[in-house]
Amino acid sequence: MRRQLLLVAGAALLALAGLGVVATLRPAPAPGIDQVAAQVAAELRCPDCQGLSVAESRTAAATAIRAEIAELLADGASAEAVRQHFVDRYGAWILLDPPNPWAAWIPALVIALGLLIAGWWVLARRPRSSPAPRPAGAADAAVRRELEELDA
Amino acid sequence: MNRLRWLLVPVVVVPVAWLLFTGLGRDPRDIPSPLVGRPLPVLAGTTLTGEQFSTVDLVGTPMLINAWASWCIPACVIEHPVLMDAARRHAGELALVGLMYQDTVSGARAFLARYGDGGWPHLLDPDGRMAVELGITGPPETFFVDAAGIVRAKNIGPLTEADLDRLLPLIGVAR
Amino acid sequence: MIPSLGHAAVVVALATCLYAVGAFVLAGRRRDPVVLDSARRAMLVTLLLVGLACIAMVVSLVTHDFSVRYVVRNNATTTPLFYSVIGLWAALEGSILFWALLAGGWATAVLFRYRDRHPALMPWVGAVLALGLAFFLAVMVWPGDPFVRVTPVSPEGLGPNALLQNHPFMGLHPPLLYLGYTGMAVPFAFGMAALITGRTDAEWLGLVRRWTIVPWIFLSLGIVAGGWWSYEVLGWGGYWAWDPVENAALLPWLTATAFLHSSMVAERRGSLRAWTHLLVIATFVLTLLGTFLTRSGVILSVHAFSLSAIGAWFGSAVLLALAGSTVLLVWRLPALADRRPLGGVVSRESAFLFNNVLFIGITFAVLFGTLFPLLVDAFSGAKVSVGAPWFDRVAGPMLIALLFLMGVGPALPWGGASWRTVVERFGLPVLVGVLAVVLAMAVGHRELAVLAVIGLATFVVVVAVDEVLRGAAARARSRAEAVPVAAWRVATRNRRRYGGYLVHAGVCVMAVAIAVSASGASEATVVLATGETTTLGAYRLTNRALVQEPLADDARVLETRVDLTLAGGGTLRPALRDYPNSTSPIATPAVRAGIGEDLYVTLLAYDPASGSVTLRIFVNPLVSWIWVGGGLLGMGAVFAAWPDRRLERVVAAAGGAAGTAA
After folding, report:
1. What is the nearest CA distance from C117 to chain B, expressed in angstroms?
2. Complex ipTM, two decimals?
3. Which of A145, C99, C172, C537 has the fewest C-beta atoms under 10 angstroms from its C-beta?
């Protein structure tokens, strides 16, 4: 019981320490349109870098695209329309999240399949009887054996 | 079941082989342009010589829009004589327009002084918006536009005589 | 003269290596110790020759011998000594030479370590390792000779790639990674030897345990070092971009980690043996595949060295390795059936099984995302990109699920657990995890992924702490020791388990740091005239001066630096460096790392006339904890791998089933 309390206190202390660290953060409260602009910029590929997004890159092309995103959004375009605007100029290549349905479905299906097979394997191969209770060791040798048995 | 397991070998190896060796034949930089088949966006602004210019003025003549930069070495240096030759050969029936890509006025002038100035206008693009309109990923890129103002082809990389032979007919210029 | 010596050394090394392959095969078939001895010595000679070739290359670089094409392309008279030396692995051909050295080192080490033992397995282990090394030597003899000459001799070199001479981490990141990659050939060779000889019980796994963890440590630290280097050098404020080459390094790490876990099940319980073989094969093949992806130019990326003929060689190597190992595995498949039932639904085995499924799932997702542009191009000619948004969305949930298993797995017993045990074990940690989530929300976090990571990471750490205290208390009770002493004693007698806890704790620290830094960063782009001040978060920066001067240790590089003073003390000096062999200047960010957050400033542009600068300023929370977490991970793994003679003797004396000395 005392050990449990010690643990709870320890965990609370850990949580408070974490809170203290996190409290030094200042996530800037971004107004709506800036957030959308940042989101769209993070989804567009910087045309003259290798693999970075428009949000991360500071090349001239990326800066021009960010300016254009801001203008389009200010004119009332939706995020989807802004993305399409750039696809109409650069091609689907400019999107960092490919629009192909295969890109979305194949990994999801394969992984779901894998999990199902693993689940079936576990259910089909489980031992028939319930597992024996672990010996509560007090003696030295028994404790040692238990520790070794649990050794990962 | 026992003999069947050998099927696993080709099932595993063949797709990997196909993937590896088709991969080697592809050029990841050769990106097709969605502008092909659509009207060229209007490009208007100041040229390298200080005049006002717009592509609207050239409607009725087939055009080559060539995006280049003085720092684009050796690609732009290689294609420059090809462009000069095309301008001379097809004078009157083909208009060339240069588009400066992330370049400086002094750099561009030095390039033309060194490699030859063919006399066609070069549009400045100080904030990069024209490059975005055309979907340019890096110099040199050349758009082939017909007399009606429709983009018929986009060439990525330095322009060669073979490219001109292949693409100029698409905009109605005979070689 | 020296380069010719180097080239000759490589050629002779190929010959001795091929001899070793033949001798090992002969020794394996005939069980002849004399031939085996000869083969082993041939490997040693090969290693020494490759070492000689490396020395020749380093000497050529340090003396700026521009008759060698590799030196011309990667070195200049003004290159500082440190960067000349590490020029050995700065580019394609040199890095293959370095790789061969490390591969030869691992092979020789394992062959001489087991010199008088395991006579059935070792010849085949040697044959596989020698064959792998022979491949790299052959690449150097034919398409990728690092000692190719240039005539006429060039008076000056191009210098190293600007990005690669900007930061001393270039001396750390590639060697760590290469040590990891080349080291993974050892467990692979043992796996192959086990299949060839038909010794498909878990003997090879016990032998290979330490030879797996050590390369795994290098690979893990190498990947973390790469992220750190990326952060300090590239100037975009991030540390991981899901770039194809980053992914190529991650893939074998994922399967190697899965292998580490499933081999525990295979060794202890005799289950998942075929699966374990598959994982070690996948690790080796993915290492080769990664090298193929980066060397062949097939997918452009930050690291892509060039399009080259070497790509075709590596592609073929991938196929041969895959085909050969698949044939062997399929051949022995009937003998690899599970020895006993897998264990209950809620048991350590099933936790490990799901852990493996998730690791393979992530591996598949990353591989798929990296290759998808290639596939689409091959099928339809269309060009698409797959970047961070896709990877985050697909791999993210699986990584978070892995966090959960990391807490649950080590605390469940083998065989199965009753629900009562589950509640007893996990009740408190779940409660604490929930508390952590509540606190996180109170502080302002709203993103589901971040909250899940925080909650689960807390859960894992509390489970681990609980386990440690439980074990310590049991021992303290029975031995009348103080709890801390008991804890240390228990830990040192169960190094794998407790080392594993520390590794998991390190992963939790990294996970929280990554989640928070990705979601809570703030940034601003400002233009500052001389004397002007700007504020972001708790920081006030003032532009004091714009300085332009050549670098102290490399006069060809012009550095344009802005001196920024920070209110409260300190100076930051972000710079742009103009390298002669680079068309655009290289950003050198200034990073002030702190416990809670990093202040990160990049110089984007400057006006020499007025002294005004354009800066990009980031405040990145918790980034330092990523590197700390990586350090904990390394320490935990070292602790786990540390030899413990006492336990080995006891286990052996107790007549344990799998008590083979490693």
Report:
1. 33
2. 0.84
3. A145
